[in-house]
Design brief:
With 237 residues, the protein is of the alpha/beta class. It has 11 helices and 9 strands. Strands 1, 2, 3, 4, 5, 6, 7, 8 and 9 form a 9-stranded mixed sheet that branches. The longest helix is centred in the middle third of the chain and has 14 residues, at 144-157.
């Protein structure tokens, strides 16, 4: 009998930190060992198909995550081999319908090896995402607001589920180094991985523009970024 899928939540309360891109690249990375992955998003911007070079196909999707939750059926987009994607197509989910998300996850857990959730705050689903998750990855900026948000989030849910913090879109400023040191000191003696900051770069922008992932290029300058993603993949497997 197949084991239930490992459920991975990529979350930060602050927008713009790269949750969707990181969720997609991690999900694709998981498939490279011949594992099946379902990628979900509650982000209304729905950028993942663009990151995957599948924006044209995504426009044909009309029944998203809310349809799967309520009716048990909907649209699904294949982003890569063994990687399927379901977006949230509405901004409003009734609270009574949101509770059905657990049933949906239980059903899909029997069909795939991993479920990756790109979570933007949706009032009715946010706490359920956290409850369902086995492991949590936190992309972050290195600034006061986002760093404080991480500590507040951890006070709310504890440390057990959190596996990695990924500083992203950084510029190696003095202030960023200060906040990185603060995070390093806080988690130095825990099992939480703090990755080396991922610098905002022209090479990453080019991958995004061409619909390719980190695993579909051999550009040497991106080797350090690949190395940090591999560290995170090891703790979410």
């Amino acid at each position: 009998m197949k084991n239930d899928a490992v459920k991975i939540l990529v979350k930060n309360q602050k927008g713009g930190v790269g949750k969707s891109l990181i969720a997609f690249w991690l999900a694709h990375g998981l498939t490279l060992e011949n594992k099946t992955v379902l990628l979900l998003t509650s982000d209304s911007q729905d950028n993942i198909p663009t990151f995957a070079g599948k924006s044209k196909e995504a426009k044909e999707m009309s029944k998203g995550l809310e349809s799967w939750i309520i009716n048990g059926i909907g649209d699904m987009l294949e982003l890569r081999k063994n990687l399927d994607y379901i977006p949230l197509k509405t901004l409003n989910i009734r609270q009574e319908d949101s509770f059905k998300f657990k049933n949906f996850i239980e059903i899909m857990s029997k069909k795939v090896d991993y479920i990756v959730i790109d979570a933007s705050p949706v009032l009715e689903l946010d706490d359920i995402f956290i409850e369902c998750a086995d492991k949590i990855i936190i992309p972050t900026f290195l600034d006061e607001v986002t760093t404080t948000g991480i500590f507040n989030f951890m006070k709310k849910i504890g440390l057990n589920k959190i596996k990695a913090i990924m500083p992203n879109r950084t510029h190696h400023t003095r202030l960023e180094r200060i906040y990185y040191s603060e995070l390093f000191s806080a988690f130095e003696h825990t099992n939480i991985i703090l990755t080396v900051p991922i610098k905002h770069s022209a090479e990453i922008a080019k991958l995004i523009n061409t619909g390719k992932t980190l695993w579909e290029t051999k550009i040497k300058i991106l080797d350090p970024v690949r190395s940090e993603f591999k560290k995170v993949l090891e703790v979410i497997k």
